[in-house]
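> run fold DNA polymerase III subunit epsilon
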Amino acid sequence: MSYDFTAIDFETANGFRGSPCSVGVIKVRAGEIVDERLWMMRPPEGFDHFDPRNVQIHGVTPEMVAAAPRFGEVFAEMDAMIGGDLVVAHNAAFDLGVIRSALEVSELPGPAYQHACTVILSRRSYNLASYSLPFVAEAAGVPLRNHHDALEDARACAGIMIDIGRIHGAGRPQDLEEALGAGFSAVAPYRIGDEVSRATQDARNWRASGSSIPKQPDWAVWPQEGSNPDPNPDADPAHPLFGQNVVFTGNLGISRQDAKNRAAGAGASTASRVTRKTTVLVVGDGFVAGDLTSGRLTSKAREVLKKRDNGQRIEVVSEGEFLQMVGGAWPATV
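> ok
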């Protein structure tokens, strides 16, 4: 068995994971890209509104996919390209969650997938201030030209996985699971009638209430820290937040307490200030990873960079990346 896998990347129309509007798929054989495909699509019916914030990020508009097939018409072909491969994604919990939620609302069954997360594998392979895809792609020697283009992002993810294999001398991707001790997991097949994911439950509740996305609530004006719940001991160890110590700064698309609860549900410990135990700082208020180089930082972020200079390994995560990890929606205003 050689260094074979399939890398994927989804872009979504709105804050619901089950609203894919494009997907890039990259086939790798013996450590080389041998095939690639971009599918543009309409999200599943009833969940196909386009949030302006999402459009601003990836540039896919309703008009661009108006004549495209829906996810349910694309899925079989996409799944056939993946075949029995290991699925690799940057923040795999999100991309596999997109497939699951889109299948649920499309009322379609889906297979099991073995998958690997290049966020987690990158943490064990590079020492970076941020493990956002552009930062890691640069470190791996495959710099991104057009971030949030699904095919470009999938290609970068594939390049990162290839470089990580080179760093650790892996003859196949599965060797990294033993060498690095994390980053790999599996999702069970989905059968119609199975319990649906939390993301789908939330989206159905929003729809039933007559709202396409949650409205910007009063708490967003000045976030309250709230309590720090115990981490879920039964969470998936392959989740990118499992075992991390997380601190929040700025406004997110969900309340600070909800953010802490969701982080704890993924197996993270949370705190209200940056300490020697901190491993992840989540920054709201529209922060993106590129702000680390532009100087647009909160006081907590500056404290993190000081601690990094003194040898403490802390990762800075944007609002969007965190919401992808735990599920949630962008604020209604942009």
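Confidence is low (pLDDT under 50) at residues 214-222.
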